[in-house]
Request: fold
Amino acid sequence: MSLLATALTVVAIVTQDQAALRAAPRESAVQQAVLWQGDSLEIRATKGDYLQVYDHRRERAGYIRASQVRQQTLQPENAPELLAVVRFLRDTPGAEALGIGYAAAYLKAAPADAINAEVFDALGTFAERLAKRATVRQGKTPDTSVAAHLEVAAAYGVRMLSFERDEQLQLCYNGDAFRRVLALPASDQQKAQAALALTRHDCVAPALTPTERLAVDHWRAEVLDRVETTRLPEVLKNRLHLRRAGVWASLAWQRARRSEAGAGPVTAAGKRAVDELAAINRSELAETDAATYSDAAIRVGASRWAAEPPAGTMPSATAPSSLGIATSPGQPGETCVHLVDSRHDAKHALLTRCTYGIVWTASAAAHPQGTALALAVQPLDGWREMWVFRQEPTGWKVDVVPPATVQPTLGYVEFAGWVPGSGQMLTAREAKVDGRYKLSFELLNPSTLEIDRWADKPASLSAFQRWQAPAWKARTVSIR
Reply:
């Protein structure tokens, strides 16, 4: 809290935006600077309706109207009054910079043994809300106050991180105050709020290396698991389950990328993600958490095959027309998928294609007549595609069906069953497109990859009611 690090006992905290710091104690005097709520000033004298002050941040002296500031004495006996203001501002949108100023004043005034997690919880809340305001304002009508409030926060030592995500600058609080909440005696609710703030998906740096990202995801999982949920409100429990589901789904994919991790840790992470999603109390899910719920479901849906142990997919010799797959290492980081049957092994495969994505071998589903096969391949965290192998007069061919025809963000598409006789296949598709969530159940023509019919509920398609695969219905998160 650098602005209050000096031995000041009385300060003036600016309470209004665009307050003028003037060269003399009158309205017509030259304006020295524009001050913003939360700015802290050293008081040197009183001149009528004005205070003579010194702005340490700008290294400039001047005069400001007394009505535009609140004078505060930084003595231990005044700490409760400062904390009361912090409590009031904590839930006042738009007053984040002012709240940070008052939190800094309280930390300066209060005795060390009286400082607990409450003020750091409020400080972190102010900083996180300010970062969200700054991110949301991009692309809209310019708001100079947001940039000014960020400068005020920075002067108090509140650090923001910035990332470029989806062609937009994402601002995130670095979480120092929330880490202090977790380190100090605090209520279960305060610790839960801190854990949620520290583990946001959108605040994970997108430029991390795979090793760094794995370490971050492990840390996020540990932070969330340290929160005791027994006495939490149901709404907060749901939020923790949603965040844990997304983190463990990411961990499942991260572990699958590391061949030395083995199948056990991958399966454990995949099962944990599914279990956390299943633990949601739908009747207590807040309306404001609907998007978060869809987000978590897509993340889990993309990695759900991690919950199944890898399956041997070579066909049986007693089924001459059956199809299966075999995998082998390709270039460093690649997995090569070989389409095989009882007469064609991996060395003489019907078709071979390599990928840097995760091949979920347990997902392979062959058409009963041996003319097609569907396979789940996950190239990115939170994005799973479907490979469709099919036989044509000229030979075998494979096409990739993505969750959506947009830049990959969140989504999955999965095989749901074969329709006898017609050659059509059933698919379920869920994706986040332009900030909106879309779930559809489709009747797909494998030959053209065109959607013949679709509905937002499987019961609305007669083919789904008759031919959906029991294994798909038992495992999918699209029906929830």
